[in-house]
Amino acid sequence: MEAAVINHYFPQLDRTARSRFAMLGDLYAYWNQKINVISRKDMEHLYIRHVLHSLSLSRTPSRQSFLPGMTVLDAGTGGGFPGIPLAILHPNVEFVLCDSIAKKIKVVSEITRELGLSNVTPLVSRLETLPGHAYNVIVSRAVTRLETFIPWTRDKLMDNGKMLFLKGGDLKEEIGEASRKCGIPLSCFSVTDLKDLFPGLEDDFFETKKICEIKQTSYLCAPPLESS
Question: Whole-model pTM?
């Protein structure tokens, strides 16, 4: 499916954003032949399973995750998801797209350059070496389990920062484990079903996909507890 699906669900897009989303198909087709960042079988589903999937983070119930002037870390961005689509949608938000694999960041750098995205900083780095207290929001797509990811990144958030994760399946056990090991009350976690965000979308990919949000809370920025 082409970029029309993005225009349909985000009718407020200006001409520049529509043009940039339209360019993504050819750019990823070109770069994915050189450096594999998306599975070959998934390329035909780029706009739904990667672009629209990424943009779902802007539709969380709080709707306050990407305000002008904020700085967002895409931790483990891979080929630029969710960071690149979000940066197109939110041109007044700064995005740092970080991955430890240099060839993936090469793709991110070239695509953002072609798109003219001045609000994206591609970065080759391990998460633990990033500066602390630098980001309003941390986003990630299926990098690892929450109880592993949170200790890697919680000190990177500014006070009252939040985390948004694109996940799949039943998250009850994973959230419970993260709450226990990381000292974050269950009340700070919320889960949104993606199938409810895009009515009329005929693709079963979203049936089991979810957004897990850890809300702005002092517990999130607290030092991790000793795991048992």
Answer: 0.93
